Amino acid sequence: CAPERPLTLVWASHNLGQVKRLATRVIYLEFGQVMADLPLDDFFNPDLLAEHSPAAHAFVQGELS
């Protein structure tokens, strides 16, 4: 019996509800450039996200309002 190995799944979505429900880490891209690469809780923390990536913060705030 082979030992279990960690699984990584790369998945793309604009649906922030699904991201919150399924992801553990968020990589936010704009025009092919990584603007944020954060654990899920940090990505959805407005203060941390605004400091780390104003572009990602603006996107999240626009989608949640």
Would you give an account of this structure?
By secondary structure, the protein is α+β, with helices and mostly antiparallel strands. It has helices spanning 16-22, 40-43, 46-52, 54-64; strands spanning 25-30, 33-39. A two-stranded antiparallel sheet has the order 1-2. The relative contact order is 0.15. The model has no long low-confidence stretch (mean pLDDT 91).
Q: Strand share of the residues? A: 15-25%
Structural shape:
elongated
- The sequence of SSEs as H and E is HEEHHH
Mean pLDDT value = 91
By secondary-structure content and strand pairing, the structural class works out as alpha+beta
Low-confidence stretches: none
Taking all Cα atoms into account, the compactness measure Rg is 14 Å
Arrangement of strands in the largest sheet? 1-2
Brief description of this entry?
The chain is an alpha+beta fold.
Characteristic key phrases:
alpha+beta, 65 residues, single chain, two-stranded antiparallel ribbon, 4 helices
Protein topology:
Blueprint: H1 16-22, E1 25-30, E2 33-39, H2 40-43, H3 46-52, H4 54-64
Antiparallel strand pairs: 1-2
Helix pairs in contact: 3-4
